[in-house]
Design goal:
- It is a single chain.
- The protein is α/β, with parallel strands linked by helices.
- Helices cover 37% and strands 26% of the residues.
- The strands form five sheets. The protein has an eight-stranded mixed sheet, sandwiched between helices.
- Helix 2 packs across helix 3, helix 10 runs antiparallel to helix 11 and helix 13 runs antiparallel to helix 14.
- The structure holds adenosine-5'-diphosphate, aspartic acid and magnesium ion.
- Magnesium ion (MG) binds next to loops.
């Protein structure tokens, strides 16, 4: 009881100490089991009573899908769980806005581009809000600046610096749901900013970590699968995946969850699940992927295991050999910034430095120009830039061991430009034309190979 009182007086100014929720805390504090259940209270709402639900572009594309979400919210109203609903723009809408912008001006200023592309999400939350009201679910729709979600960094790829949740709590106190427009925020100047393509997941993760509430990502597949179901029809849903594996998958092309959303989720370590909006908004919410923070719980056996395959198209592969030190790599790195990734770098006394790098294909013309220039003025002996490349990655625990890595990569070894590994990832850089074949073969290793996780978990993890 003393702890509850102390927390309450620290949090609230003296004038509010005797408000109704202060009394409620005191009452709860007198009944120990209830205190344990109640968690921490804030603005009159128990934190465990909020859930953040994020709906992606396909899930909100069209009146019938919006109606389906609204009907599910209507049914859920009975469960007393308040919802923060984050919505993306309808599928294809952001591309339409980008194209409209490009038709209007040759090179749009990022600040103006953000003002245009953030409107797609605003339309969605408005429509969703109307659909909910029609079904008697009270709600309010907030854009990024209304919340506000504060951002910093460059326009079109801003980073969330903080979220002020007071307005969300205020709305939730008097209504069942708050709609929040995904993918956007506001900077110190008061201008709308966007978080980079696919950024609505990041909005949801930021809200979930600030509200300390679970985050459910509804999308157009049943969960995180062993491979992209669009490319690998035999892909299966992974019911439990470690946070680390999920980060590697998202960072290396699996767009099912935005990579930056995982960074935020990792900081707060609140639960995240990925599930289908078509079955999930109806009844079957059991079919989903849960992201686990406790890696040990997934290690059912002390053996390596292969979980999933991801890929990135449109990559450029750069190989170079210099007779001196590695300063050429530094120059190229400075040129491309964070876009250039180092795959491997070998130094041998006689031959100098040999390095392999990748970057998005769009950066290739710039890199080729820079390599030409460097060849004239530095000790760059040989360079190669292949703009029609891709990378395919397999993720799993203990994958870096040569025996495991080679058995997975062997079928594609001859066609690969380079191989790189991390603690839990093996990436092959290949020609774009080999992508489908590599994904298929590595996926086979994932399901049926010696290290396939299906064997380790004897079916428990798989659907
Ligand atoms: P949303 O619009 O809901 O944000 P996205 O298109 O961003 O949806 O992400 C979902 C898509 O991610 C799926 O349609 C699927 O093609 C792709 N995807 C890629 N890798 C995977 C994977 N390992 N598991 C599931 N989906 C994947
Ligand atoms: N609408 C944005 C996009 O298409 C953000 C998102 O969908 O998450 O990239
Ligand atoms: Mg997405």
């Amino acid at each position: 009881l003393q702890t509850a009182r102390a927390t309450q007086s620290r949090r609230d100014p003296p004038s509010r100490r005797h408000s109704w929720h202060g009394l409620a805390i005191e009452l709860l504090a007198r009944t120990q089991p209830l205190v344990l259940c109640a968690g921490v209270w804030r603005e009159g709402i128990p934190m465990h009573g909020i859930v953040v639900r994020k709906f992606g572009g396909t899930s909100v594309a069209g009146a019938s899908r919006l109606a389906r979400i609204a009907s599910a919210a209507q049914r859920r109203q009975l469960s007393r769980r308040k919802a923060v609903v984050v919505a993306s723009a309808m599928s294809g809408e952001t591309n339409r806005l980008v194209n409209a912008l490009k038709r209007t001006v040759h090179e749009p200023e990022p600040i103006a581009a953000d003002a245009v592309v953030c409107t797609g999400e605003q339309v969605t939350i408005g429509l969703l809000s109307a659909a909910l009201w029609e079904r008697g679910v009270s709600n309010a729709a907030l854009t990024g600046w209304q919340v506000p979600i504060l951002t910093n960094g460059a326009h079109t790829r801003s980073l969330i610096s903080s979220v002020r949740a007071k307005r969300i709590y205020t709305v939730l106190r008097v209504s069942a749901a708050t709609m929040v427009a995904g993918f956007q925020g506001v900077n110190a100047l008061g201008c709308s900013t966007t978080l980079g393509r696919g950024g609505s997941d990041t909005t949801a993760a930021a809200l979930s970590s600030v509200l300390r509430s679970p985050c459910l990502i509804y999308t157009d597949v049943d969960g995180v699968c062993t491979g992209d179901p669009r490319l690998v029809p035999s892909a299966r849903v992974i019911l439990r995946i470690s946070y680390e594996e999920m980060c590697e998958l998202a960072g290396f092309g699996s767009r099912v969850v935005h990579d930056r959303s995982l960074t935020l989720q990792g900081r707060s370590a609140v639960g995240m699940s990925v599930l289908s909006s078509s079955s999930g908004t109806w009844n079957n919410e059991k079919l989903r992927t849960s992201v686990f923070f406790n890696l040990g719980r997934l290690m059912t056996m002390d053996r390596p295991q292969v979980t999933s395959v991801s890929y990135r198209r449109c990559r450029a592969y750069v190989y170079l050999r210099t007779s001196g030190g590695g300063d050429v790599i530094l120059t190229l790195g400075a040129l491309g910034g964070e876009k250039i990734e180092l795959l491997s770098c070998l130094h041998s006394g006689a031959r100098g430095v040999r390095a392999a790098m990748t970057s998005p294909a769009a950066a290739a013309p710039g890199l080729e120009g820079a390599l030409c220039h460097l060849r004239c003025c530095t000790r760059l002996r040989r360079s190669q830039c292949d703009a029609a490349s891709c990378d395919v990655s397999t993720v799993g625990l203990g994958i870096r061991y040569a025996q495991v890595a080679c058995s997975i990569a062997l079928p594609m070894l001859r066609r690969a430009h380079a191989i790189a590994t991390s603690e839990i990832r093996l990436s092959l850089c290949l020609k774009e034309r080999d992508l489908r074949c590599a994904v298929g073969r590595m996926h086979l290793a994932c399901l049926h190979g010696d290290w396939g996780r299906g064997l380790a978990d004897s079916g428990a993890t798989w659907l």
